[in-house]
Amino acid sequence: MKVPYKWLCEYVNIDKNINEAADALTISGSKVEEVIEFGKEIDRVVTGKIIKTEKHPDADKLTICKVDVKDEVIQIVTGASNIKEGDIVPVALHGSSLPGGVKIKKGKLRGVESNGMLCSEVELGIADENSVHGIMILKEDTPIGEDIKKILGLEGGIIDFEITSNRADCFSVYGIAREAAATFDKELKKIETSFNETDDSIDNYLSVEVKSSLCRRYAARMIKDVKIGPSPEWMQEKLRQCDIRPINNIVDITNYVMLELGQPMHAFDYRYVKGKKIIVRTAQDDEKFKTLDGVERNLNSSMLVIADGERPIGIAGVMGGENSEIKEDTTAVIFECANFDGTNVRLTSKKLGLRTDASSKYEKDIDPNLIDIALNRACHLVELLGAGKVAKGVIDIYENRVEPYTLKVSPEWINKFLGIEIEKEEMRKILKNLEMKVYGDDVFEIEVPTFRQDVKIKEDVAEEIIRIYGYDKIPVKKIIGETVEAQWTLEQTLIKKVKNVMVSCGLYEAMTYSFISPKVFSLINLPENHELRNTVNILNPLGEDFSVMKTTGIPSLLECLKRNYKRDNKEVKLFEISKVYIPSGNQLPNEYDKLIIGMYGKVDFFDLKGVIENLLNVLGIDKAEFEREENSSIFHPGRTAKLLVRKKNAGILGEIHPNVAENYEIEDRVYVAEIDLKTLFDAAKNEKRYKPLPKFPAVSRDIAMLLDENISVSDIEKAILREGKELIESVKLFDVYKGKQIPEGLRSLAFSLTFRAEDRTLKDEEVNKVHESIINRLKEKFNAQLR
């Protein structure tokens, strides 16, 4: 934001040059992007009066001038044709310099001595070549011999600030002046807002209706007996310095107030307001409207408009309409001063491709209470410029008033937080200079003005104090600390172990996005009411394919397998450690780390199960079981198992349902596992404990039985271990057989049982007794037939 330095100094008496002021404001938190100094390159250029002219004896187009520069009369030869005796002009003396690095020295032109140069606006750098021609002629009462920079107001310059979006109060000259007053501990001059009103009330001319909550406040004033004309030079100069083109006195007043106070305003020609009524409403879909720039725009119902009794006359917060603009014969004006929802203004501006000075301020959510001073300031300027008369009264619709915010914080806490000792009275003075009211002594009760929406917590108060007090006053202290060796956290160590196991089992690591398309849930056959369809939606997605956060990592890994299958890779084994995001009401979603494994080719269920068992072994998890799972719509009902760790569900593994594999265009059998890493890590044993080799020999027995083919091996193993109690050391399945000798619906299972006692050599009688008990238990529970 560009702030003319002279304009800034009208509110605060800054006794520093522009560069010193810019440096101090940067240190106090108002970052300066650039300082543009006026007339910096101009030196030894003064005002002079032409007292005599005569033709050059050897050149028809040259003129010899005698110029009085106060202390002396010098001779200058010029080719300008727009000068005459008595004119007061800028004179570049011998040894002077001009913008662009031009140096002026005395010399001769066609044999006649010339001791300087008469200057045009172009040569002084205040106009371009296409706008003016000839030497600059100054006013008749201009004193001679004066520095041209002083005469033309080229002293000072412009400070260009980089304002962050949370400091809407600083998007104005007065807002920066407030910062300057606090920075330099100077008095901030009040803005003059007084004016006189006529006896005729605005209620006789206008009514206002607000139909949308997107308009937080709407105020209007009536200006009668308007005389349209150019605004004064001082106002035009300030507008130009802020890159705004002067138009006429009424429009210039609205722009001037916007720059001065940060509150956009708009002026409507009253005679074009149909029905003598203003309605703030949302636009209709496909409603047409031609803005002040002459472009017809298509509106929709998400956009807020200012309308009269028949049609829109302005796009709220963006631009007014061509159908109500101020013209040379305008005699009555309505001043609009409103506050609109910043997000809506930004979206409207973006949709229309129309960004204006007003929209850039509104989108920062400016203070609604700023309207009072802005509207009164505009009326004051109308009276000051003789541009019209202000009708009595104001229409002001403001339902949900924004009130000052109160914070409590102790000076002791502030000093402790900042690590510096600042006197309480110094803190109080700084906050007062920032227009915050402070009550109390041991505990400050601070009333934060409504224009400071960025000050919400006590840490904000501490920041306000230290930035004005001076960051440079914080004592420099050496960092004291012990250098320690960086180490992996426990979770990082376990994840590293998981990856190593996966790689050692021949799997390659995959990496996929955390966001997916909601369509993938149908690809993996999830029912419509399944809990995994409850997702965290992304507000600004790149597209539908990346619009929700994943609740399962299976679809993403299946997509990787599909891509490999399409590229004719015959055998693929992949894994990924992926986060899933489960919604948690209005809170941030719960995030869980999942191990996803996927494979196809020369593999079966037991290859996948073996990878999981290797992982459990490396993590030291001994209380893990695999149970049949038949209720998952993603997996094959007869080739799927749940992983239970310490009786907790730790995940699922098995063959993908043929319909799912078909959805991903994979014709081979696909095996996938999704394991919850937190459940594994909670059960992991991070310390390995060794025990001595057995001192006493083991006894082995085999059992071969016929059982129903639907009975799981794990259930049988559990029954054997439970019946064998402390004597049985291990159970291992070594044969499964189905054939002609085996009746239909049965299968033969053969187990090797190992018995051992830690304190003695087992006798056959002991082993036989337990072995017989195991067989009886299997017959009783599973109807097993001993072969």
From TrEMBL:
InterPro entries: aa-tRNA-synth_II/BPL/LPL, B3/B4_tRNA-bd, DNA-bd_dom_put_sf, Fdx_antiC-bd, Fdx_antiC-bd_sf, NA-bd_OB-fold, Phe-tRNA-ligase_IIc_bsu, Phe-tRNA-ligase_IIc_bsu_bact. Keywords: Aminoacyl-tRNA synthetase, ATP-binding, Cytoplasm, Ligase, Magnesium, Metal-binding, Nucleotide-binding, Protein biosynthesis, RNA-binding, tRNA-binding. Tetramer of two alpha and two beta subunits. CDD domains: PheRS_beta_core, tRNA_bind_bactPheRS. This is Phenylalanine--tRNA ligase beta subunit. It catalyses: tRNA(Phe) + L-phenylalanine + ATP = L-phenylalanyl-tRNA(Phe) + AMP + diphosphate + H(+). Pfam families: B3_4 (PF03483), B5 (PF03484), FDX-ACB (PF03147), tRNA_bind (PF01588), tRNA_synthFbeta (PF17759). GO terms for biological process: phenylalanyl-tRNA aminoacylation. It is an enzyme of class 6 (ligase). Residues 39-149 form the TRNA-binding domain. Mg(2+) binds at D454, D460, E463, E464. It is found in: Cytoplasm. The keyword Metal-binding applies. Its cofactor is Mg(2+). GO terms for molecular function: ATP binding; catalytic activity, acting on a protein; magnesium ion binding; phenylalanine-tRNA ligase activity; transferase activity; tRNA binding. It comes from Caloramator quimbayensis. Residues 402-476 form the B5 domain.
